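It is worth pausing here to work through a concrete case rather than discussing structure prediction in the abstract. The textbook approach is simple: state the sequence, then state the predicted structure, then interpret. We follow exactly that order.
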Amino acid sequence: MLTRLIKFECSNVQIMATIKFILQGKNTPTPVYLRLSLGRNNTPKRKTGLFCNPNDWSNTTGLPKQTKATNKALASKLKGLENHILDRYNFDYPQGVQITGDWLENEIESFFKQGVKKNDLNKLTEYIDHYLSTAHLRKNAKGGVGLGESSIKNYKRLKGLIQEFEGKTPVLIRDVNFKFKDAFLKWMTDTKGYALSYAGRKLGSIKTICLDAKVNGIETHRQLDKVAGFKVKNENIIYLSPQELQKIENTTLPHPYLENARKWLLLGCSIGQRGNDMLNLTNKNIVVRNGLKLIELKQEKTGKNVAIPVLPTTEKIIKDGLPYKISLQKFNDYIKEVCQYAGLNDLTKGQKVEVIKKGKGNKEKRIKKGLYPKHELITSHICRRSFATNLYGNMRTAHIMYVTGHSNEKTFYGYIGKKSLDYAQEIAEYYIKETAKANKNPKMQVVKKASNQ
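Step two, the predicted structure:
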């Protein structure tokens, strides 16, 4: 019988691992099992995925009889598997890895996959594949486990960009340094025409991948810690003022689908939610608690549960029921038409997505900055931004942030469409009001009675 021993000494206790191959069953051929013995009550056993005719099996050696070429090949595979399992045991056990039936099954599968294709995890693109293979086990931004669909999609897109950038020379994890950062950003912005903010986000994702690789023993560059993604401040914040919203509400529209989109737009600016969260609302989200009518929902991006009071403006919008459901893409398209009919045509600084055709049905999207009629710049983001901007100063900032889902004030202040002139005007109005109050209620002073002397 073929047996190989591995011994470890820990606190004067010897731990031995032995492997035995056995046939189990009476069929021809019969499955070959691997049994790993780690002690009296610890003998996990799993199928190897290989088969042998019982008449060709030697119970003495625990291997196929060496009478046929096929048996010799099978014996060679089993010996290789034995070496792999014991080598992995030798590596994993001292590190505290639990040696179970599942561990054994994974290692058997790993051994046979090596013969098909062995990923080189030093390559950036192949490590992205590895990262995504465990996406369901990774922590997400909501504090839970499992990457969301959008995150997985973004990493797949990142892999495609890296493949296009690297050409025939693969980028290695250890290549990610200052030189790579500069070359990648230049390629993204100058060659591909992407916005700097988008390139900065992708660079941040690359660093995330490389740091994960570092934890798993992959060589990284000493400059990696200083390579970081970044955000670009949006200097052109677009929102709808109360006057513009009134104009939109009063506009006569030629089609029912535009009236439906307008209803969604006005509702969005009234409750301050992201596009998908708003468009997924149903009547089940509208509840009454302690006599107060609320819209309750769980925000997709943050995972936060939010309860928004239905104020008179919101009640007016939904008095005949919620608008019918449409996709986010159609919503973005239709509200541009709505705002065009409402006359929002003033030239406004901003950026919009342009689709570039590349032949054979291939298309790429680019962000292009410029001066555009305001209605062309309207997207679903304007709902949340308009809500926050219009209520700022009229409601406590903490309450606005609760509804919009902002986690800190610094991010919030960069999000709302308030400029220095707006703040100056508000401060001036405050002083005017305070002066008026002081004049209306003059302070009483005690004056001594004049003497007749």
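Step three, interpretation. Residues 5-14, 419-424 have pLDDT under 50 and may be disordered. The chain is about 45% helix and 15% strand.
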